[in-house]
Design brief:
With 323 residues, this protein is α/β, with parallel strands linked by helices. It has 10 helices and 12 strands. It has helices at 43-55, 74-82, 99-109, 123-130, 135-147, 164-172, 196-206, 271-275, 282-298, 318-321; strands spanning 11-15, 60-64, 89-94, 113-117, 151-157, 175-180, 211-212, 223-226, 234-237, 250-253, 258-260, 269-270. Helix 3 links the parallel strand 3 (89-94) and strand 4. Helix 1 (43-55) packs parallel to helix 2, helix 1 (43-55) crosses helix 9 (282-298) and helix 2 packs parallel to helix 3. It starts with 10 loop residues before the first strand and ends with a helix.
Amino acid sequence: MKDGYGREINYIRISLTDRCNLRCVYCMPDGVQLLPREEILRESEILRIAQAAAALGIRHVKVTGGEPLVRRCCRNVIRGLKQIPGIETVTLTTNGILLQERLADLKESGIDGINISLDTTDPDLYRDLTGGGDVAIVTDAIRSCADSGIRTKINAVAMSLENEPLLEFARDLPVDVRFIEIMPIGYGKQFKPVDNRRILQAIREKHPDMVPEETARGYGPAVYYRIPGYRGAVGFISAIHGKFCGTCNRVRLTSMGYLKTCLCYEDGTDLRRILRDAALSEEEKDRILQEAMREAILKKPEAHCFDEPQSITENHLMASIGG
């Protein structure tokens, strides 16, 4: 369906959990106050919301967290999402720590793509950034994921202009490497975002034959380039210095069941309340659920306000919102 500004909303990011097995400096370095399990959406509730979303025109689903692979039902949720009429693609974003041991299950579930978060290949820096993570586990998982035939992408929060080691994945493997400008949400407010335009220029200086990528690489806002001879593409998601609100096609579902239409604002629609209202029949729940989602999408803000920090009303950590 279209929102109030005529944008086609066909993409939802669904957070399975606020829990994570890393402590990244810009996300949850001190951990989070974990929600009681009964406040987290059940597997059946997630799928029911996804069915309502598909009826409204959602075609692409990204499963996120926290770290989605720490939740045991992740594979079942993905399999269930793949069976919903209207859903065309289901992909996953993970930090990669548990990916190697879950890869066969994910492939069996029908996953269409996996995005792996990796900001650096330097073991010491990775350990510092993630609160003790082992980068070798992640790099091994990236190679295994690419070798499995699953469409694989690396998400790197833009921390510096020294990105050549990450680009080696795109050179050697069919893996897209995307640089993401850090957003002023939660602990991200403490970091000055690196301008993706500077990263692009630094890469161009080393690879002057780089050209824009003409084939579609997904359904999000990334802009891609191709370095001749590289097996994967290089992408840029530039929320701060390349504002793409005019073409935004997404909404987010938090692990607590709040439908958020813009990352910048705290506003959300409580879908869990509808699903757990004992006074409603099952038919009424489905009808009201769709109506609530439709109304929220129609009221989606025209643009984020990251360039006006004083106007940001979202105060939750990214792990609580859904990455």
